[in-house]
Structure formats: structure tokens, C-alpha cells
Design brief:
Carbamate kinase, two-stranded antiparallel ribbon, 37% helix, globular
């Protein structure tokens, strides 16, 4: 394996209904768990940050009159629900997991403590980091970047429904072509919708590479961890 320790960033939609992206679809969660299980058994240490868009998007909810901070907290709670669902599915695959949250919900998950998370990873436990950063106005992309840096991950893998970053929306423009590699500054300068600017800036400051790839193609996670960067778009200096 090219990478020993990774952070996998998932959108909430990755766990949702394949058509709408809403709710939690047991089959989608099972398929995802199988892919994670394959790399864990190969000795890769895995941390996961999952969004909550399948349940609620704080930014969108605030646009219809909700208080932005309250909406963001609701979104954070959604990520905890997703984290618990993912934990159960992974354990049904025979893996050991820990769910850690930035928002304290002690009845169902551990509070996030960096040294404790490092210990879990070192013992081969899939460590699911839910609740974002525990404060409003920050995206789960930023949470993923910060946790990846804190936990000394070698790469941030962003699993999406498309196989990388394109010159245009491939669903709308038949001439859109995939970009194999980008620099952090190119992403910021062109305002590409890969991750939010705060997350990209943090990755740039800490030289953390980002790989955007299609998580829904069976076996792709293992291939990317093996170093097959041609499967997606790599962002680095």
C-alpha cells in the first residue's frame, strides 16, 4: 500500500438513497463498509469524516429563514447519526471501530481527543470523526482537513460520485475533460468546487495531498490507496 494512514472524507449523500441522496440506505452503507474493510485488512489505518447532507444541510436550511448557527448544529448532529450507522455496518464486517464526536454525546460516542484518536488508529480501529469541528460556520471539508493534519494522515481522500475534477460539469457539458492533477493555488485561483477554500488552504499549509475519486466504483478505494492516482484528481503543491 502506498499509504499507511489515510483520512477518508465522505459526503452524507454517499450513505443515502442512490437516486435522491437522502436518508440512510442500508445497501449503500454496506457497500462502503466492504471497501473500507478491504484496506483495513491490508494494514491501512483509516479515519473517516462524514458529512450530514443526506439528513440536513445547515447552509441550505438557513437560507429559508433558519438561524445559521442552529442549522449548522443540526447538521453536526446529522453527521453523528451517519457515523453511528457507518460504525454498525463496519463492525458487521468484523472490524473494530470507534465513533468520536466534537459535540459531546457521551451515551453513544466518545468525545474527540487527539491522543486518544491516535491510539485507536494505531490499534487498527476505524476511527469515525463526527460532529464536524463542534462549532458552526465550518464545513465538514474543513473538519476533514484539520483532523487529517492533527492525526498525521498521509493523504486526504475525498470520495465522490465523479472520478475527479473536470473542466466543466460532465453532466451538462459533453466536452468536459478530467484534470489529472492540480495545485492548491490553482484550486483557489479558479474557485473550483472541490473543497471549500479554508480546507484547501489548510492542506496547502501542511503539504497534505488530496485525491478526489469515484467512491461508487467497486474497489476504487483500495486502488487509490495502492497509489493508482490515474483514477482521480490529485491536488498538491
Amino acid at each position: 500500500m502506498t499509504y499507511k494512514r489515510i483520512l477518508l472524507k465522505l459526503s452524507g449523500e454517499a450513505l443515502g438513497n442512490p437516486e435522491t441522496g437522502h436518508g440512510i440506505d442500508p445497501e449503500a452503507v454496506r457497500r462502503l463498509s466492504e471497501q473500507v474493510g478491504a484496506i483495513v485488512r491490508d494494514g491501512v489505518e483509516v479515519a473517516i469524516v462524514c458529512g450530514g447532507g443526506n439528513i440536513l444541510r445547515g447552509a441550505e436550511f438557513s437560507q429559508v429563514g433558519g438561524e445559521r448557527s442552529s442549522a449548522d448544529y443540526m447538521g453536526m448532529l446529522g453527521t453523528i447519526i451517519n457515523g453511528l450507522a457507518l460504525s454498525d455496518a463496519l463492525e458487521s464486517e468484523g472490524l473494530e471501530t470507534r465513533v468520536m464526536t466534537a459535540l459531546e454525546v457521551r451515551s453513544v460516542a466518545e468525545p474527540y481527543v487527539r491522543r486518544r484518536a491516535l491510539r485507536h488508529l494505531g490499534r487498527g480501529r476505524v476511527t469515525i470523526l463526527a460532529g464536524g469541528l463542534g462549532t458552526p460556520l465550518f464545513t465538514t471539508d474543513t473538519a476533514a482537513a484539520q483532523r487529517a493534519v492533527e492525526l498525521r494522515c498521509e493523504v486526504l481522500l475525498k470520495g465522490t460520485k465523479v472520478d475527479g475534477v473536470y473542466t466543466a460539469d460532465p453532466k451538462k457539458d459533453p466536452n468536459a475533460t478530467r484534470i489529472d492533477s492540480l495545485t492548491y493555488m490553482e484550486v483557489l485561483r479558479e474557485q473550483l468546487k472541490v473543497m471549500d477554500g479554508t480546507a484547501i488552504t489548510m492542506c496547502m499549509e501542511h503539504c497534505l495531498p488530496v485525491v478526489v475519486f469515484d467512491l461508487f466504483e467497486e474497489g476504487n478505494l483500495e486502488r487509490v490507496v495502492q497509489g493508482q492516482t490515474s483514477l482521480g484528481t490529485t491536488i498538491r503543491s
